[in-house]
Amino acid sequence: MAQQQTASHMLQSLRMTTASCLFRSMTEADIPQVYAIDHEAFPAESLFRPYSSYARELQNSMAHYIVGCVPSTRRMRRMSRPWYKRLLRWHHFEDAAVAYRASDLLLGFAGFWIMLDEAHVIAIAVREPCRRQGIGQGLLVSIIDMAARLHVRVVTLEVRDGNKSAQAMYLRHGFHVAGRRPRYYSDNQEDAVLMTTDDIHCAEYVERLRGLRAESLRDGWLAHPSLIPDSE
Ligand SMILES: CC(C)(COP(=O)(O)OP(=O)(O)OC[C@H]1O[C@@H](n2cnc3c(N)ncnc32)[C@H](O)[C@@H]1OP(=O)(O)O)[C@@H](O)C(=O)NCCC(=O)NCCS
């Protein structure tokens, strides 16, 4: 709770710019803020995602989560050093080995499950005051990149029929409509629209993603997603 109050206080005093958004893997320290963002963005699904479910997800080898955050001042100082910037830009480095304490302010998160050769997006959400600044795109590009490294072929998802802003984001990232699930959402009987990418390893998609990634990385040390260990 204290963490949530600090986060909302920081948000109020911060005019967000995407220049300071870092994308990295989610850790246990992030759970309180992820819980708050998830429940703000998906009030109807809140019942299905109790607090304890996030820790379980982090233990689930099929599940992968990333967050977009404003790094703590201490990390920011470290990241503003030239050698660190170069590392981020050139090697898509993520200091996953560093123990993250709950000092980063989270702006959004996204997660997916791997099922055979498919990555299925479970959730993607950005704090309400931080939307329309490219964070959703940064998250989406990050999970597609992560999925590609895990040798997944396609990325799929379900989106509410009425959620036109999210659909616009997915269309922009090469998703197309693959079907519908009538009355899929139990709270209001809304249809789900099923969307999928084509093969994310095909040359055309790789090129498209490169352009989107360049947009996301355009600001200073806006960092890139996770480094997946070779063993995965
Ligand atoms: C969907 C969501 C994650 C987008 O995050 P965001 O940070 O606002 O998205 P971005 O600023 O990166 O926008 C990326 C693109 O998405 C589309 N988009 C995003 N919000 C939009 C809106 N309100 N209206 C129209 N298009 C929109 C645009 O194409 C945009 O590109 P542009 O700004 O260059 O036109 C965010 O609105 C959110 O958290 N919504 C609530 C949770 C949700 O619905 N998640 C999706 C469930 S399937």
Basic shape: globular
Q: Which structural category fits the helices and strands?
A: alpha+beta
**Remind me, CATH topology?**
Aminopeptidase
Q: What do the pLDDT scores average to?
A: 80
Helix content: 25-40%
**Biggest β-sheet description:** 7 strands, mixed
Structure, explained:
- There is one protein chain.
- The protein has 232 residues and is an alpha+beta fold.
- The chain has one domain: Aminopeptidase (3-Layer(aba) Sandwich).
- The protein has eight helices and seven strands.
- The protein has a seven-stranded mixed sheet with strand order 1-2-3-4-5-7-6, sandwiched between helices.
- It is globular, with a radius of gyration of 17 Å.
- Bound molecules: coenzyme A (COA).
- The site of coenzyme A has 19 residues, from strand 4, helix 6, strand 5 and helix 7.
Topology of helices and strands:
Elements: H1 2-12, E1 22-25, H2 31-41, H3 51-59, E2 63-70, H4 73-79, H5 82-91, E3 105-115, E4 118-126, H6 135-149, E5 154-160, H7 164-172, E6 176-185, E7 190-196, H8 203-216
Parallel strand pairs: 4-5
Antiparallel strand pairs: 1-2, 2-3, 3-4, 5-7, 6-7
Helix pairs in contact: 6-8
